[in-house]
Specification:
Elements: H1 14-25, E1 28-31, H2 38-50, E2 57-62, H3 65-79, E3 83-86, H4 99-106, E4 109-115, H5 116-124, E5 133-139, H6 149-162, E6 169-174, H7 184-193, E7 196-198, H8 204-210, E8 215-221, H9 231-241, H10 249-257, H11 260-272, H12 276-294, H13 297-316, H14 325-338, H15 358-369, E9 376-379, H16 383-395, H17 397-400, E10 405-408, H18 431-438, E11 443-446, E12 461-464, H19 471-478, E13 487-493, H20 502-523, H21 525-529, E14 538-539, E15 546-547, H22 552-561, E16 574-580, E17 589-595, H23 602-605, E18 606-608, H24 616-633, H25 644-650, E19 658-661, H26 667-677, E20 680-690, E21 693-702, E22 712-715, E23 721-726, E24 731-734, H27 743-751, E25 765-767, E26 781-782, E27 794-795, E28 801-808, E29 817-819, E30 833-838, E31 859-864, E32 869-870, H28 875-903, H29 913-919, H30 932-953, H31 959-970, H32 972-981, H33 1003-1008, E33 1017-1020, H34 1021-1051, H35 1060-1069, H36 1082-1088, H37 1095-1101, H38 1117-1135, H39 1144-1155, H40 1157-1166, E34 1168-1176, E35 1183-1191, H41 1201-1227, H42 1233-1239, H43 1243-1260, H44 1263-1273, H45 1275-1284, ...
Parallel strand pairs: 1-6, 1-7, 2-4, 2-5, 3-4, 5-6, 8-13, 9-11, 9-12, 10-11, 12-13, 29-31
Antiparallel strand pairs: 14-15, 16-17, 17-18, 19-33, 20-21, 20-23, 20-24, 21-25, 22-23, 26-32, 27-28, 27-32, 28-30, 30-31, 34-35, 36-37, 37-38
Helix pairs in contact: 1-2, 2-3, 5-6, 9-12, 10-11, 12-13, 12-14, 13-14, 22-24, 25-31, 27-28, 28-29, 29-34, 30-31, 30-34, 30-35, 30-38, 32-34, 35-43, 37-43, 38-39, 38-43, 40-43, 42-47, 43-44, 46-47
């Protein structure tokens, strides 16, 4: 249990009760010293709120996560049963995009503790309404000034209050109600929080007695003459001065980009002589100078040495494998640092007084003189000082023998923060603070992060290594020392005279603050000139969400970050400021334009602010506000003003693995009822055939539609298979005209020896031209002598049928017969016996016989002739009786399919009922066909039509939104719901027919059965979804796209579906017309074999999203989204008709092999046009014309130097490795997964090809045209080669897992970066069942190295197994 939770319940002091009672009467800000128990006042007030008959929430706000966690522990320990929650960024609150999530989270919650920003965001997006809160507690309330989130929350509060609506009570907590020296700050905070600042008056003396205010003392630090900088600092300064800014990678990157955006940045960087690399080196120098001043020569020398060596070492461990701009800049800095001569600091124990600053010496003196029970916090300004000071104190013998040193710096997002030059602190979070609390550490060096609110009750000494920056800071630091007889020590310069009295110190704090404010005023002078008008917020009436001028910039950034990630594409908004001169006051105004990603619709890509401003900051806010409004109007954020992608993803329904659904529909209930009510019957002929020989023929009748059954196979035994056929034409006959039902007689012939058969009307009426009476022909002829007629069955004493094989003169020897029944074992041996073959025990004759005994020349069984009788009806009638269970089952599933077509699929009008039977048959049903192939086909058709649908319905959506919308439509959860909604679940076949429990289906039994006894069943939700896709596939085969659309409109009616022709017309009409290509792009049409009607569509397909800041050209992303599904459908169409039919799994593997990005990228690099190149002969000046190959990818338009570098590197690798890959593609027996992965081709190569397919379809509307392109690029030829030569296409990882899985073993991959001679090498080790198999190096990325390692491990294990087999056989 948490240590705080273990505390006993707090008991209120009188002054705390005084404050609590005041808080019940009005909104107040409790102003009491740190350590006086302000939190307990809040506990009392929250308890009072919880006691109300209300479900409103008390929301406790704190400025930092550490403080939130602390207050949460306190409240949880004090409030008892009411549900209390801590809400922080770690909960991924920024992804909670609708009210359902918030309502679910807050259900039955009475108290929430969170940082300020989380509540502000929730209120802004109308997820939490002010009226839902009963109380808001503002901890460290002095922060709620200006644009602080607390102030913004109170703006919403005031709107609620002005409208006469219920508002929460307000309770503020602070130890320092003024942050600045201006006493008007108290009044300002009171106005902001709609509260009155209160301190105890009735019980003031008790407060004074309770608060153990520390003794203040100032230690004067004597001045020392200036010391020269160390050599390292001088070398660093010289290196910085010698730098040529035009060699800086940032400047080179901007120069090469040649975009409006980069030109703007380049101008700013050169004017200010400011680049990321220069800023880091300047920062290092500044920090080194600070160390020199604060800690002395050794501290400065140690800092510079450790900063440089840590930075270089961190680069060696960097696992970034793409050469990003940041990596290039980091390497540039390292190159500079490696040229600087840096002196290794000598051991600290060897230092003398001259190596240390007077301030450090004074600090050590104070620590040495502190009592033994001292627990001290030292406050410094710089985070770098924290690390160096901790090192120096830990190395000081007199300190380290008494103190265990820890550190604390800001923790917000620190772990994820980019490590920069000069960062020496390890990421510890709050671990040292917790150790300080528990006593493991007794000296904590901290920045200002430890000032506010952190509860450290056992601290008794605070040392301010640097003076507090303002009054608030002093009060907060003083409050950390709460033990009795505590001290706060300020180390001040010798010239400082602020140590006489507290008033003198307070005056100094005010003066210091005013100096700070003077600088801030100078920096903000232009901003203050702006008179910001009352700009109405963007308010959404339906939800209450609103966005104001100040919030727009961060919200616009968040919206852009939610767009689809693309390699080498910066999705952040980019602002350009324009200075406008000519004003009377001589001060130029600024108007800003914000540019959004090119994947967005043209209307919102470039948005200008409405006003001209003095400050750039406000101009950018104005542009962001207008842009966000435009984004909302374009439908790209929801009514909660959150990115729409969250709504779309939230719309993907969840599903459990199984669900309770309706019982399987039973057709015999209706058939039995119709036998009783109808006088009309439908009749078909059933024929049992052995090859072309007719064995038996019967007329079968039903009082309803009689489906024509496709011929099906009867597996009589291991060697005999027969066929059952139905007549093509059905006849109609009156029930009264039917002959006698022979079903019971036939069933009795085959099964009467096993279970009783009644002479009652069967559900399937069977009759023949012969008279087959019930039980008149079974064993009614005795056998006395002579060879029995083989056309009739032999019956033993138990009436079990046997097939005659041979008449024997006597009992056969034991070795000649497999079994003799018990009743015959004592019969005489010297009488005639019969060699017989037993009647099959199976009642399921629809599946092949498994594990049948191999004939060995023995008789299966034998009986004495005296115990045998002979049937007097041809044995084929018994055979037909034996197959009746199988016939009834096949008829049952066809009747089920017909009922499905009638009751659910009526609008689709399937012409081939066998397709529907296949579509509803799961693999578990073990029918002759199952739905898996149809499901694979239906999945492809569904995704193509869904892609077209969302493109048409959402013309403004970027590719990421379209993909999410399509995924929502085709998700298994949505298809599962569709299956249940339309009642498809009643018709899905999942149980295998075994015949074991089959019994005759008598009409009288069905009619007497309670119709309501049918129980539900559990079905896999994946199966429910799969059957929808399989029916789509069946509809496609049965009637093409028209029937597919009918199917889709039934199952997913909320989507507006379009056929290919309509979709083409709509999408093509939305494109701006362009009649002529640029000459540079004309070869593309010839290369792909299609001349575009609208050239703009082709140009869009060739335009990378980095192309042209602010241009009107659309990028390829939407077309690539469409092309992806069209490519899939083309490959599926090529796989479907292959003979023999491919399984679902085989088609999936083959499709993956044909459409993966690595193969597409490689084929795009192989696809080129030719260009005439002319040269003049130096000999005779004749013109020489040569052909130059221009690959397709070079026609892609972009404006990114990173794209260009990636293309160049890909081209180099392609030149080195293409021959090997081409050989494997032409002759290899395995798909070259590892070799293609090692090419490391950027994904935009394959994206370009898919966008080109999408463009051809939008321009032509022809799948055939698209197929020609897939043929030309080489996908379909390679697919044909894979099929004809049986190339193995399984991925190496899958092959390896399957190989070792046979022995129930598992594979583990370990990757690491090895550095030898300064060269990085990405390596992968493979283990099987913890045993090392192989190690592979030279990886280009983690995915590739694992693929290659799996490939090598697979072949190595195969070779080992082969060698072992050779040894065994040899």
């Amino acid at each position: 249990m948490d240590s705080v939770e273990e505390k006993s319940v707090m008991h209120a002091r009188a002054y705390q009760v005084e404050m609590f009672e005041l808080s019940l009467k009005q909104n107040i800000i409790v102003a009491m010293d740190t350590g006086s128990g302000k939190t307990h006042v809040a506990v009392l007030r929250i308890q009072a709120e919880l006691n109300k008959d209300s479900d409103k929430i008390a929301w406790f706000l704190a400025p930092t996560l550490a403080l939130c966690e602390q207050q949460y522990r306190v409240l949880k320990s004090q409030l008892g049963a009411p549900q209390i929650k801590l809400l922080s960024g770690a909960d991924n609150v920024d992804t909670w995009s609708d009210n359902r999530i918030w309502n679910d989270y807050l259900r039955d919650v009475r108290v929430v503790v969170s940082p300020y920003q989380i509540l502000l965001d929730a209120i802004t997006h109308a997820f939490v309404h002010i009226g839902r809160l009963g109380l808001i507690v503002f901890d460290e309330a002095h922060n709620c000034v200006g644009k602080h989130p607390g102030s913004k929350i109170m703006e919403r509060y005031r709107v609620q209050k002005c409208n006469g609506l219920a508002c929460p009570a307000i309770l503020g907590l602070t130890a320092s109600p003024i942050m600045r020296s201006n006493l008007d700050g108290i009044e300002k905070i009171e106005q902001t929080l709609d509260a009155v600042c209160k301190s105890p008056t009735l019980h003031r003396e008790e407060l004074v007695a309770a608060v153990k205010r520390p003794t203040l003392s100032c230690v004067t630090v004597p001045e020392r003459g200036s010391h020269p900088f160390i050599d390292s600092m001088a070398n660093l300064a010289a290196a910085f001065r010698s730098l040529n800014i035009y060699e800086d990678p940032y400047i080179l990157h901007l120069q090469n980009s040649r975009t409006t955006k980069s030109a703007y940045k380049l101008k700013r960087a050169l004017e200010k002589r400011e680049t990321p690399a220069l800023k880091q080196i300047q920062s290092l120098y500044r920090k080194g100078a600070e160390m020199h001043q604060q800690l002395g020569l050794w501290g400065s020398e140690y800092f510079i040495y450790r900063a440089i060596t840590h930075f270089i070492e961190s680069n060696d461990q960097d696992l970034t494998w793409f050469e990003t701009q940041a990596a290039v800049e980091k390497q540039y800095i390292i190159t500079i640092l490696q040229k600087i001569r840096v002196k290794i600091p000598r051991p600290f124990k060897d230092t003398d007084r001259l190596d240390l600053s007077e301030k450090f010496i004074a600090l050590v003196k104070e620590l040495d003189s502190a009592p033994d029970n001292t627990r001290c916090i030292i406050f410094v300004i710089e985070t770098a000082t924290v690390a160096v000071l901790a090192q120096m104190l830990s190395a000081t013998a007199s300190v380290s023998c008494r103190f265990q040193v820890g550190t604390m710096i800001g923790t917000s997002n620190f772990a994820a923060r980019k490590r920069e030059l000069g960062d020496l602190n390890q990421t510890k979070g709050n671990s040292d603070l917790e150790d300080f609390r528990t006593g493991k550490l007794n000296l904590l060096i901290a920045t200002s992060i430890a000032e506010e609110g952190i509860d450290v009750p056992a601290c008794n000494l605070v040392i301010c290594f640097n003076p507090p920056s303002n009054v608030k800071s002093f009060i907060q630091r003083r409050g950390r020392a709460r033990m009795e007889n505590s001290k706060i020590i300020l180390l001040v310069d010798e010239s400082n005279d602020q140590h006489d009295t507290w008033m003198a110190l307070e005056d100094m704090m005010k003066k210091r603050y005013e100096d700070d404010m003077r600088v801030a005023h100078e920096l903000a002078a232009l901003e203050e000139l702006d008179t910001i008008p009352e700009i109405a917020p963007l308010r959404i009436t339906s939800t209450g969400a609103q966005l104001d001028f100040d919030q727009a910039k961060s919200h616009l950034e968040h919206f852009c970050q939610k767009l689809t990630y693309r390699q080498h594409v910066d999705h952040r908004p980019f602002y350009i400021a324009e200075e406008i001169d000519g004003f009377a006051d001589g001060i130029p105004r600024i108007k800003a334009t914000v540019h959004l990603p090119s994947s967005l619709p043209q209307a919102v890509r470039r948005v200008q602010g409405l006003r001209q401003w003095y400050s750039e900051k406000n101009a950018f806010k104005d542009a962001a506000f207008q842009a966000f409004k435009a984004v909302y109007e374009a439908g790209l954020v929801n009514d909660n003003l959150m990115p729409l992608i969250d709504d779309i993803l939230e719309g993907i329904e969840s599903r459990s693995p199984v669900m309770q659904v309706n019982a399987l529909w039973n057709p015999w209930q209706r058939v039995a009822q119709q036998w009783q009510e109808s006088n009309d019957c439908v009749q078909r002929e059933l024929v049992l055939k052995d090859g072309n020989r007719v064995m038996a023929k019967f007329e079968a009748s039903l009082p309803c539609g009689f489906p024509r059954l496709s011929p099906f196979t009867i597996f009589w035994d291991a060697t005999n298979t027969w066929t059952v056929e139905t007549s093509e034409q059905s006849g109609h006959i009156k029930a009264g005209a039917l002959g006698g039902d022979q079903s019971a007689a036939l069933i009795d012939l085959a099964y009467g020896h096993r279970w009783p058969v009644e002479d009652s009307a069967h559900i399937l009426h069977l009759q023949s031209t012969e008279n087959i009476a019930f039980r008149q022909y079974i064993g009614n002829r005795a056998l006395e002598h002579g060879v029995p007629d083989p056309r009739f069955l032999i019956r033993g004493t138990n009436w079990k049928p046997h097939i005659f094989l041979e008449l024997l003169p006597s009992k056969p020897p034991k070795e000649m017969v497999k079994s003799i029944e018990k009743e015959a074992r004592d019969e005489p041996e010297d009488v005639p016996w019969l060699g017989l073959k037993g009647w099959p025990r199976r009642q399921d004759l629809l599946h092949p016989v498994i594990d049948s005994p191999v004939p060995d020349g023995r008789y299966p069984c034998a009986l004495p002739l005296s115990q045998c009788t002979l049937d007097t009806i041809d044995h084929t009638k018994s055979y037909f009786g034996a197959i009746i269970p199988s016939i009834v089952h096949i008829l049952e599933i066809h009747l089920t399919a017909e009922e499905l077509c009638r009751a659910v699929l009526g609008g689709i009008e399937f012409s081939d009922i066998s397709l529907v039977v296949t579509a509803i048959s799961s693999r578990a049903a073990k029918e002759s066909t199952d739905y898996e192939r149809l499901e694979f086909l239906g999945d492809s058709v569904l995704k193509t039509l869904a892609s077209l649908s969302v493109m048409i319905q959402y013309p403004n959506y970027p590719e990421g939104y379209l993909s999410a919308m399509k995924d929502r439509i085709v998700s298994n959860s949505r298809l599962c719901r569709a299956s249940v909604d339309v009642g498809l679940d009643r018709f899905i076949l999942t149980k295998a027919f075994t015949g074991v429990k089959w019994r005759p289906i008598y009409i009288k039994d069905i009619l007497s059965r309670d119709k309501n006894l049918l129980a539900g069943r559990e079905l896999s939700t994946k199966t429910l979804a799969d059957v929808v896709e399989s029916l789509i596939g069946a509809a496609y085969i049965d009637g093409g796209i028209p029937k597919v659309l009918a199917c889709l409109r039934l199952f997913i009616p909320e989507v507006e579906w379009h056929d290919f022709e309509d979709a083409h017309v709509i999408l093509a009409s939305r494109k701006d017309a362009m009649a002529q290509l640029t000459s540079a792009h004309e070869p593309v049409e010839k290369l792909i074999g299609h001349t575009f009607e609208n050239k703009a569509i082709l140009m869009e397909s060739l335009t990378h999203s980095s192309w042209g800041l602010g241009t009107s050209d659309a990028c390829m992303e939407r077309l690539e989204f469409l092309g992806d599904s069209i490519l899939d459908s083309i490959v599926v169409a090529a796989l479907w008709p292959h003979e023999p039919n491919l399984t679902n799994n085989e088609m999936h593997l083959l499709k993956t092999a044909c459409v993966n990005a690595d193969l597409l990228g490689f084929l795009v690099m192989e696809w080129f046009s030719t260009q005439d190149v002319t040269e003049i002969s130096p000999v005779d000046r004749t013109t020489i014309i040569t052909q130059k190959e221009v690959p397709l990818w070079k026609y892609m338009r972009h404006m990114s130097s990173q794209v260009a570098r990636s293309q160049q590197k890909a081209e180099e690798r392609h030149g080195q490795e293409r021959e090997g890959i081409l050989f494997l593609m032409a002759h290899g027996t395995e798909y070259p997964w590892a070799q293609l992965a090692h090419m490391d081709i950027p994904k935009f190569f394959s994206d370009m090809f898919e966008s080109l397919i999408g463009a051809v379809w939008v321009d032509s509307g022809s799948m055939d045209k698209c197929q020609e392109i897939v043929e030309r690029v080489g996908i379909l030829p390679y697919l044909r080669r894979i099929l004809s030569d049986h190339v193995k296409v399984a991925h190496p990882k899958n092959k390896l897992s399957e190989l070792v899985g046979k022995e129930d073993k598992r594979v583990k991959y370990e990757t690491e970066v090895c550095i030898e001679a300064g060269i990085k090498d990405l390596r992968c080790r493979v283990f099987v069942a913890e045993q090392f198999i192989v190690e592979v190096g030279g990886g280009v990325n983690p995915v590739e190295i694992v693929t290659r390692a799996a490939d090598e491990a697979y072949h190595l294990l195969l070779d080992r197994a082969s060698n072992l087999d050779d040894e065994m056989t040899g």
